[in-house]
Design a protein that fits this description.
Helix content is 38%, strand content 21%. The chain is an alpha/beta fold.
C-alpha cells in the first residue's frame, strides 16, 4: 500500500544542522594545503547568501536554473539555494556537446546557468541560440573570471559589455548575499516555511539512448518519499560514523542522490574525482562508498592479484578500501556475482537495487538480511510493482513522476490505462518476491525469420566475463545474430603475457588467433545456454573502446545502440557477405 511520509525538506535539515551544529564538518575538499573542512555552518551561510541573491534578481518559484559544471563544492551550495527559493534544478552533464547543452537549456526554459570558465567557450559558441538565458554565474575565482572576459570578447566577437551584462562572478554573489543577510538576518527560515510538497524540485534529462532526451519532472514529495523508503530499508546498514567519498557526477541522479542522502543523514563527504577516488580510499578510510560496478571490480581484481591465498586477498581488499568500509552500494549496471561473493566473504555486503530516474529513482533493493545476488531485490515499502503479461515491469507510488516536461505524448505513452508506469524493462519475480531484470522491451531485434530477440538479455550473459568489456548484439532483419565486441585491455594483455603471445601493439594483439580463440570460447559458452536463434554466429573484435566521450555510451554507461550501429554497420554487415 502506498505510504505518505511527512515532508522534511533538505533546506530545513540544513538550517537545523547549520544552526545547532555549526562547527561539525559536512564536506572536505582537496586543496594545495591538504583537505579543507567545510562545516555545516559554512554550508548554511553560503547557501543563504546565494538564496538571498537569487531572490533579489527575481529567481523564485518555478524558475528553471541549470548547473553545467563538473563536481565541486559550489554544486551543493547552489543545489540547496535553488530549492530554498522554490526554483527548479536542471542539471546538465559536464561532458555534453554544444548541441545537447543547447537542447536542454532551451527545452527546460532555463533562465540562469551556473558554469565554470572551462565550459564557458561552449556556452558562448551557442550564445545567440539561448534566448531565455538572463544570467550566467561563473564558479571560478574572481581573478580568473575578470582576466578572462577581455580574452573571451576578442575570441568570440561578443563585446565585453555584453559579457559583463549577463555574467556574474561567485565572489560578487557572496558579497551581495552577505549584505542582504545583514538586512534580513532571519536567513533561510522564511524560505523553509514557504516550500510545498508538490513544488517541482528538478527536471532531470534522460540519457537519450534513442532520440532527444526527455525531461523527467520530480517533485519534493517524489524525492522525499523515496528518500524515506531508502532510509527505512537500508538505515540499519548505515554506520554511526558516516564518511563517504563522493565522485559520482552530481548531474546524474545517482551522484545527486548521494549528496542528498549525505544532507539527510549527516555524512562527512570528501569530494573527489573518478581518477583519484580509488587512490584516496586507503588514506580517507571511508565508511560508506557508492559506485558503479567498474570500481568494485577493480578493487576485486587488485585484491585477487595480490596473492593466491584467500586470507591474504581479503586482507589486501581491506587495505585498498581503508579498512573501515561498512556500507557498499553498487548501481548503474549489474555487478558480477563473483565480485559480490568475494566482498561478502570479506565481511562486506554490496547492495544492489533497481530504479529509473522517473521513479526518484529506486524501486527495489536487496536488504541486509534479505538478499539474493542474482536479483535486484524486493520493492520498496511504498512501491507497488507488478509484471504485465509480456513481462514488462509496471509500477505505481508516490515516488513516481507525473510527466515529462513539455512532452504530453511521451507521458501518455509511458502509462497504461490504469495509471501504471511502464518501465520498458522486462523482469521476472522469484517465488520469494525478488525481482530479476531480463532486458529492455523496446530494444528488440527481429530476425528475417521473424524471431523477436532482446539483445540486452544476451549481452547480460557476458557481464561477468573478465575479458569482454562490451558486447553489442546485431542482426535486425538478418538470418542470424552477430556482435561487436570490445575487450578489457589490461586483462587481455595479462593473458597474452602469461601465454607469451607475440604482438606489436594492442590493435594487433586482439586480432591474433590466440585472442580470437579465447573470445570464441567465451561466446560458445554463452551460446550453449541460448536457443539456437539467439546464438551469436560471428563477431567483430574492435581494437578500441566504447566510451561516453565518443558518443557510444550514455553518461550512466548504457549502450547507445543507434550511434554504435551507424559507426560499425559496414563492418558488421561484412560478417554476412559470404552468406549471400
Amino acid at each position: 500500500m502506498t505510504q505518505q511520509y511527512p515532508l522534511i525538506t533538505e533546506t530545513e535539515t540544513l538550517y537545523q544542522r547549520g544552526t545547532l551544529e555549526p562547527e561539525k564538518p559536512r564536506f572536505r575538499v582537496q586543496t594545495e594545503n591538504g583537505w579543507q573542512t567545510i562545516s555545516w555552518g559554512d554550508y548554511l551561510n553560503y547557501t543563504t547568501q546565494i538564496a538571498l541573491y537569487f531572490t533579489e534578481i527575481g529567481v523564485g518559484w518555478n524558475t528553471k536554473v541549470a548547473i553545467f559544471a563538473k563536481n565541486q563544492l559550489e554544486f551543493a551550495y547552489f543545489d540547496m539555494a535553488i530549492h530554498a527559493v522554490r526554483s527548479v534544478l536542471v542539471p546538465v552533464y559536464a561532458s555534453n556537446t554544444p548541441k545537447q547543452v543547447k537542447y536542454i537549456l532551451n527545452h527546460s526554459d532555463s533562465e540562469i546557468v551556473i558554469t565554470e570558465l572551462e565550459r564557458l567557450p561552449l556556452l558562448l559558441e551557442i550564445w545567440q541560440q539561448l534566448p531565455l538565458i538572463k544570467k550566467i554565474i561563473i564558479l571560478d575565482s574572481n581573478d580568473e573570471f575578470v582576466g578572462s572576459l577581455n580574452q573571451l570578447a576578442q575570441q568570440t566577437g561578443i563585446t565585453e559589455a555584453e559579457l559583463n551584462d549577463k555574467m556574474v562572478s561567485l565572489k560578487n554573489i557572496y558579497q551581495r548575499g552577505e549584505l542582504l543577510n545583514k538586512e534580513k538576518p532571519q536567513g533561510l527560515q522564511p524560505f523553509i516555511n514557504s516550500i510545498q510538497p508538490d513544488d517541482l524540485s528538478t527536471i532531470l534529462y534522460t540519457s537519450g539512448t534513442t532520440g532527444e532526451p526527455k525531461g523527467v519532472m520530480l517533485t519534493r514529495l517524489n524525492l522525499g518519499n523515496n528518500s524515506q523508503d531508502w532510509i527505512q530499508v537500508l538505515g540499519n546498514l548505515m554506520p554511526d560514523t558516516r564518511i563517504d567519498l563522493l565522485w559520482l557526477p552530481m548531474s546524474h541522479i545517482f551522484g545527486w542522490g548521494e549528496l542528498g542522502l549525505g544532507n539527510s543523514l549527516g555524512f562527512t563527504t570528501y569530494l573527489t574525482t573518478h581518477t583519484a577516488v580509488l587512490n584516496d580510499m586507503p588514506a580517507i578510510k571511508p565508511t560508506i562508498f557508492f559506485s558503479v560496478p567498474a570500481y568494485w571490480e577493480k578493487l576485486y581484481l587488485e585484491a585477487k592479484a595480490s596473492s593466491t591465498q584467500k586470507a591474504d586477498q581479503i586482507k589486501q581488499l581491506h587495505q585498498l578500501t581503508g579498512g573501515r568500509l561498512k556500507f557498499c552500494l553498487s548501481g548503474g549496471a549489474g555487478l558480477q556475482r563473483q565480485v559480490k561473493e568475494f566482498f561478502y566473504e570479506a565481511g562486506l555486503l554490496i547492495i544492489e537495487g533497481y530504479g529509473l530516474t522517473e521513479c526518484s529513482p529506486t524501486l527495489t533493493m536487496n536488504r541486509k538480511d534479505d538478499f539474493d545476488f542474482d536479483t535486484v531485490g524486493k520493492p520498496f515499502p511504498s512501491v507497488q510493482l507488478k509484471l504485465a503479461p509480456d513481462g514488462e515491469i509496471l509500477v505505481k507510488g508516490l515516488n513516481l513522476f507525473n510527466a515529462y516536461y513539455k512532452n504530453p505524448q511521451a507521458t501518455a505513452d509511458s502509462f497504461d490505462d490504469d495509471g501504471w508506469f511502464k518501465t520498458g524493462d522486462l523482469g521476472e519475480l522469484t517465488s520469494e518476491g525478488f525481482l530479476t531484470i531480463k532486458g529492455r522491451k523496446k530494444e528488440i531485434i527481429v530476425t528475417s525469420g521473424g524471431k523477436n530477440i532482446s539483445p540486452q538479455l544476451i549481452e547480460s550473459q557476458f557481464k561477468d566475463d573478465p575479458y569482454i568489456e562490451h558486447i553489442v548484439v546485431y542482426g535486425n532483419e538478418r538470418k542470424y545474430l552477430t556482435a561487436l565486441i570490445t575487450l578489457s585491455e589490461p586483462n587481455v594483455i595479462n593473458y597474452a603475457t602469461k601465454l607469451t603471445i607475440p604482438y606489436d601493439d594492442y590493435a594487433a594483439l586482439v586480432q591474433t588467433p590466440e585472442i580470437r580463440a579465447l573470445i570464441q570460447k567465451r561466446v560458445d559458452e554463452v551460446n550453449n545456454q541460448l536457443a539456437s536463434y539467439e546464438t551469436i554466429k560471428k563477431f567483430l573484435i574492435h581494437d578500441g573502446h566504447l566510451t561516453v566521450e565518443a558518443g557510444y555510451l550514455t553518461p550512466s554507461l548504457k549502450l547507445k545502440r543507434t550511434p554504435i550501429y551507424q559507426t560499425f554497420e559496414k563492418q558488421l554487415d561484412e560478417l554476412y557477405y559470404y552468406d549471400r
